[in-house]
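Cont'd.
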Amino acid sequence: MTAQTPVPSKQKRPFFLRRGPMENIATGLIGLGFLMLFQPFLLIFYTWSLVTLLAGTLIFIIVSKFPE
Amino acid sequence: MSSVNTAHSVVEPSRTSKRIAATIVIAYAVITMIPLVWIVLTSFKSPPDSISYPPKIVFQPTLEGYCNLFTTRTRQTSEYITSLGAPTSTCDEITRSRNMVIAGPSNYWPRFQNSLVIAFGSTFLAVSLGTLAAYGFSRFKVPLAEDLLFFILSTRMMPPIAVAIPIYLMYRELGLSDTALGMILLYTAVNVSLAVWLLKGFIDEIPREYEEAAMIDGYTRMQAFFKVVLPQATTGIAATAIFCLIFAWNEYAFAVLLTSGAAQTAPPFIPTIIGEGGQDWPAVAAGTTIFVVPILVFTILLRKQLLRGITFGAVRK
Amino acid sequence: MPKFRKETQVTSVTDTSSSLLGKAANATPAPIASRIRGISDRSMAWLFITPAIVLLLAINIFPLIWAIYLSFTNFRANRPNAPIEGVGLSNYSRVLNDPNIWQAMQTTAHFVFWTILLQTLIGFSLAYLIDRKFRGHAFWTTVILVPMMLSPAVVGNFWRFLYQPQIGLFNYIVSFITGVPPSSFEMLGSVQLSPWAIIIVDTWMWTPYVMLICLAGLRSIPDYIYEAAEVDRASLWRQFWSITLPMALPFIMLAVLFRGIENFKMFDMVTLLTGGGPGSTTEVASITLKREAFESWRTGRASAFAIILFVAVFGLANIYVKALNKVKQR
């Protein structure tokens, strides 16, 4: 869908520029953000949950532009 | 849901397992219907019957709940009531037997009318805009189409209260608070996302050769859209319209925050129905019954498209 | 995505006459060749899409941006004439350090966790049983689906009646089964029971939703896989764990994510059942937000809270769309 033309060989793309693994990391971050938001143990985790969620979401949006 | 032709041929379940499955599923279905049956039963009870212990299943049905739903009443002395002429209607009779007279109509009917106007108005707009947009996404190469579609979907996922704060301020500035127009626009905006997603699926399924043939015959793109695509998409449009209608009909959060009188719909109104000494449960049940029956009809009409609607068109069968 | 380049060469000649939308008509007198490539197709596309986008921008996106702006100010909607001052991130840091809001988050978490767990378990089991295709299964499926189509507010309100301690049907049935006197417990009035009261109603309402999606998942599993398993003499138990469940998993995920998003922002049903009470035992995030915004009138702070909820939902929505696409490929 996106305008970028895929790089010929997948192997040459560094890990952090490939869509699959980065998308999993972003999903993980969003999940972690939710756990931090919901956990009843430490206020400090709750405080930083927004930043985690935001980071996860931003990474997700950015990497979804990368080719597979 | 109904007749799907993918019967597991080799692994056809045994008769005992079918019987066990049927028993459990029917038991669940019956239990799940109890609250709904109870609503309908309560609406035909008299107020004392409705709060008797143990709960009454057999009772003398009366229309008192429906009378109370549609009227406001004042208590009068029995001398005054006997001085009135003969009762003019059943409701009149029931009310007088409780030492009261009908003072006037209640707000239920105007609220119900608001619900009708707002639900149908917003559905019409959402489906019209949605059909156009869905056709655009389906047939043309739109730059950033995937991002736009996601943006459209994500607007539906916003928490209503979060959106309500700025909407409340904006409507206050524009004079749209507590107006039917304001509610119609708001529900249209929420529904248009569902309409675009669903209708895009339906239009994708119409072979584009039909329009191409029509256009070779001299139709313009617009004519082809109206005379070829729209008739083909009727089922999809009808299903989408019912989904939009159900959402707008059932919506509560925006309605309770943004309307208070003139444009209030039925959902925020029904819980406020009170009689003497607390909630008038037969009247509430009557209001709920009247409100819910159209949805039951729609559910039966929709049952084949239901899955598609609730998954934004992702699951087709 | 459709590729329409070629076809339009034939057809766009006649685009001029589309009098339905004036804009299209005005944009046409250019030579045919130039219109074929650029204007006609692209502007046509925008002509179809723009009305919907404009409406969403006006009613959804503009207010959202306004809320983001307000979240950095001390604005109070009940004092519209007071000067608005920027307060930086302090609204956010207050919300994120407020133990009451943290508490509301945990109440929400409890509600979301148990409703999803119960709905997934019951919903999947029902779907599995309905997939046995006993006689009349289509009819009973439709019956089961009814609650989820109804208004959570209107029906939730009626549950208040069913939960009445002395006269309510729920208490009566529970006492009939367990022998506990029906007036000895209050589903809505007690601190221990009220969180479960809302979980029960939500589960009653939305289990059909999960069931319906799971059923689609089960029906998407092709027969030949089971046939192959049969040939290999895999036990039913084994078939369930290595075929049925993994193959239905994307669908279950879809249902879980959607219910998660919906219940995370749950407002109407809980407001009418308990209004957040007793005390604040059932005060889920949306109710706290409503109180901040429309009762305390701390609009700036409420906006910051709203943005936090929005970011959370938006993050989940991203994953949800990914799951949608996965399911679509089947």
